[in-house]
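Hi team,

As requested, here is the filled-out complex form for the flavin mononucleotide run. I kept the field names the same as last time so the parser does not choke. Let me know if anything looks off before we queue the next batch.

— J.
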Amino acid sequence: MNQILIVESSPRGAESASRQLTRKVRERLEVQYSEAKVVIRDLVKDKLPHLDLPTLKAISTKDPAEAEALKKDAYRSDQLIDELMASDILVIASPMWNFGIPSSLKAWIDHVVRAGKTFNYAGTGVEGLAKGKKAILVLASGGVFSEGDWKPWDTVEPYLRQILGFIGIEDVQTVRAEGMNIPPLAIHAVSNGEKAVEALVI
Ligand SMILES: Cc1cc2nc3c(=O)[nH]c(=O)nc-3n(C[C@H](O)[C@H](O)[C@H](O)COP(=O)(O)O)c2cc1C
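And here is what came back:
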C-alpha cells in the first residue's frame, strides 16, 4: 500500500457529516496501512477551475508536438491524474446537493477522466486504466436515499460508481450519513455512518 487519496468536497467544515465520516475512514486506513502516504485533495481549500478551451485543447490533442507546446495548460489535469494513479485507495467524500454531487467534485472528475490517461478507447468499447484500486464513497444527505421512495432521486452514488467503473475502478464501497435534515434521523446519522465505516472491507 503506497498511497491513499482522500477527495473532500463539503464546504461545511467541522459541521460537515461527510468530513466527519471521512475522518473515521482515514483513522481506520491509517491503522491498517500505517506505511501509506495519505494525500488530501480538498476541493474547497484548493478550488479547481472548470475545464476551459485552452485546457480542453491541451488535454485532448493527439499531436505530440502540440501536446508539448500546450503542456502548461494540461498541467493541472496531469497533476491530478498522477495523484490518482499513484494511489491504491481512493476515498471520495460528497454531500448531496440537488440530488447530485457538488460542481467542485464534478470539476475534479472532469480533470481526471481523460482519454489516454485514465481510460482508452478499445475497439468499440472502452478500457479503464485505473484498475486494481479500491474506492470508498463517503456520502452525506439531508434525506434518505439508500432505500425507500427517494432512492431513485439519488444521482450521487450511481454516478460515482459508473464513472469510477468507466476508468477501471470496480471495487467500490459506500458509507452514508443520511437523514441529516430529518431531526429524529439526524441525531444518529453520523454514528450510523461510523458503524458502516467499521464494517468496510479494506
Ligand atoms: C446547496 C444544497 C443542496 C442540497 N440538496 C440536497 C438534496 O437534493 N437532497 C438532500 O437530501 N439533501 C440536500 N442537501 C442537504 C445536504 O445533503 C446535507 O446537509 C448533508 O449533510 C451535506 O453534506 P455535508 O454535511 O458533508 O456538508 C443540500 C444542501 C445544500 C447546502
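Two things worth flagging: The CA atoms of residues 10 and 153 lie 20 Å apart. Strands lie at 3-8, 37-42, 89-95, 119-122, 125-128, 134-141, 171-178.

Thanks,
J.
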